[in-house]
Amino acid sequence: MDLYAGLPVTIDPYADVPPSEEEPWPEEFGTDSGSTVPGTDAEPSDLAISAVPGSAPTVREPRTVTTDAAAVPGGEPGLLDEMRNGTWLDAQRFPELEWSVDGIIPEGFGLLVAPPKAGKSWMVAGVGLACAAGGYALGKIAVTKRPVLYLALEDGHRRLQSRFRVLMEGEPIPAGVQVITKAQPHEVPLMIEEYLALHPGQKPLVILDTLGKVKPPKRAGEDSYAADYAIGGKLKDLIDAVPGATLLVVHHTRKAESEDFVDAVSGTQGIAGSADFILVLRRKRQAAEAVLSVTGRDVPENEYALTTEGGLWSLDGPDLASAAAAVKTRKNTENLGDRSAEAAAFVVRRPLGTRPADLATHLEISSNDAGTYLRRLHESGRIGKRTRGIYTPLSYVSEVSECDSDHSQKDTSYTSDTPVLDDGDES
Q1: How far, in whole angstroms, is CA 277 from its chain's centroid?
Q2: In the prediction, which pLDDT does 54 show?
Q3: Does residue 358 register a pLDDT over 90?
Q4: In the predicted model, what is the mean pLDDT of the chain?
Q5: If phi over 0 gives left and psi between -120 and 50 gives alpha, with beta otherwise, what is residue 134?
Q6: Structural domains of the chain, ranges and CATH numbers in brackets
Q7: What are the φ/ψ torsions at residue 309 (nearest 5 degrees)?
Q8: Fewest CB within 10 angstroms: 1, 23, 107, 209, which?
Q9: Is the pLDDT of residue 242 over 60?
Q10: Whole-angstrom Cα distance, residue 294 to residue 39?
Q11: Model pLDDT, residue 413
């Protein structure tokens, strides 16, 4: 059977190649898997042939497969060109992770999530001004001076001026912060790209307030997760193109409560999944205390206690470690009277253990009263017990259980500041 029967063949790519008696041209390609096409190094099955009635057949030359596209001038890159082995990876030297705010805001694309009117715009403005001036973020964390672009798309210039003056506490607003208050959704990525191009090597911080101002409406029939991941992925690609730069995007929480703070991010998991780090701010209405939960690909997951007054946010403690400890103290003292709360806080600050005599000295009470406070806190699950008469923070408790059989009969809901003394107080 002639493969080209009835078709006018005007070009013979092998016209100048003498036929081989040992390897004759196959009647149909692929009939002899061990042969090669005359004039080439290719197997017959490597060649693609197409023919349209009334025209000459087209023969496409095989693509040369190589692990290095540059080795073939004009060669087409292979799918595995970017593959590297473990030896190569082990030999690489990468720059250290860059932080806009140490321990909290690294380079890359991240979200700050909180309910409406929780103070998140004040927080990001404070962070931006600190970075633009080279001061202290959250009142305690020293930051490196860098260019800052603040896309405050829910505010005007008058409100920003007033807010910035409060945050600067009498100091002039730094020239290093640039503000934009109006932009169409499709313009924002272009603005960010242009700003990053203006500051090569300077590791700028870009703040977008809020995501809702740039998120396009979902098209009919479009998957919600895919739509959310697409906008998050586009923002991530923008900032990843500039090593050391950070894009911090303000977003709202969902209304439904969840034990996992990451689930608080409004929308599908596509938004959270595309981010390099997530900050969730939780504060009760009219409360001065708040908790900032932090997680991410390169960020140690933790919770930090914050306080706010007049729009200024600050760590509850001199550093991150103290702020993390303050969260545990708050949990241990919630709904307690003042004396019980003070006793719980005293135990939390002493990881090696607290005896009733230690607490008695601190509170200036008797050892019997101190022992009662400690037992009540232990029975309500607020502190741990390492051994008889020695109480510890919960995170330092060993697996040794010394609960007496009568503990289960006691009222563990008691939290009054008036100790109920019983026989056998530990000292």
Answers
A1: 1
A2: 53
A3: yes
A4: 80
A5: left
A6: 1-63 (no CATH), 99-329 (3.40.50.300), 335-409 (1.10.10.10)
A7: -150, 120
A8: 1
A9: yes
A10: 64
A11: 36
